[in-house]
Design brief:
It is a single chain. By secondary structure, the protein is α+β, with helices and mostly antiparallel strands. The chain starts with 9 loop residues before the first strand and ends in a 21-residue tail after the last strand. The strands form 4 sheets. Strands 3, 4, 5, 6, 7 and 8 form a 6-stranded mixed β-sheet that branches. It is built from 6 helices and 18 strands. The protein folds into 2 domains: 176 residues, D-amino Acid Aminotransferase, Chain A, domain 1; 122 residues, OB fold (Dihydrolipoamide Acetyltransferase, E2P) (Beta Barrel), CATH 2.40.50.140. It is globular. Strand 6 and strand 7 form a beta hairpin.
Length: 323
Amino acid sequence: MPLRAIKPMLASSAAELPTGADWSYEVKWDGYRALAIKEGSTVKLASRNSKDLTRDYPSVAAAVRTVRVGSAMFDGEIVAVDDTGRPAFQALHHRTTQGVTIVYYAFDVIHLDGRDLTQQPLDHRRAALRRAVDRSSLLLSDALPGSPAAIERAVRQLGLEGVIAKRRSSTYQPGKRTDAWVKVKFDKRQEFVVGGFKPGGTNFDSLLVGYYDRRQLRFAGKVRAGFTPVSRADVFRRIARDTTPRCPFVDLPNSSTSHWGEGITAEEMTKLRWLKPRHVVEVSFVEWTRDDHLRHAKFVGVREDKAPHEVRREHPDAPVSGS
């Protein structure tokens, strides 16, 4: 039977790296999560929501074709790398290759030459992955050497997004978010759903973003910083056709004061434009305030690979215990 894209295994958030002999550590790449499926000369790239990305990233598809196996399903990240070797996330959703190279970092193999590897431990899958991508154009995202503290220092110095800790004994659990994989981001950032905007100029002054709590969209804050003229126009082009007269946030208005800071008053509600919650953006911020709003939020990029209903508030407050 032909290989079909599955929902990838997901990592839980934590404030610090877990420690213990059963943990290993990888770079958390700042890109688009994707499965790479190869069957003979046929290649397909699928997002975490099974969207076909093959035509969007032809250089990645070409690299997958160089793998010297009959069939395989890899898990990994599509990353835009600039001239300094650092990820350039915004280049991905602009579909541009000017000044960047689009690559694929494979960090897991789920199927290989007719064998389902999901029930094999991570160390076994990593060994199979190394053999499979050897002498191909795919890049290997392998375990990092050193102690957790040394790894964190090195990754921070390189300016990378964070580290993924994985239990060496863990099996691959499609579509599940488990504590067997733990992500630690060194700057606070996560995905949010766009539910409205404050008009300004020819497009918008700021975006209003939130996250789902069960089936309810809760307000997280306003995002004004981080936009270039090009990215602002691009975001507005995406959202402008999805306006709606109804506010999608269940907890607005949420302030009795008139300042445009933390909350939104009933008077301010009349000045805003609401959107059907169809678009996801990644946002960096300093912290969550006591009122559960974002402080100093900054736009990072559009997340075409994330479904709005999957966006939840991340809680990396507690460390994960070691083995």
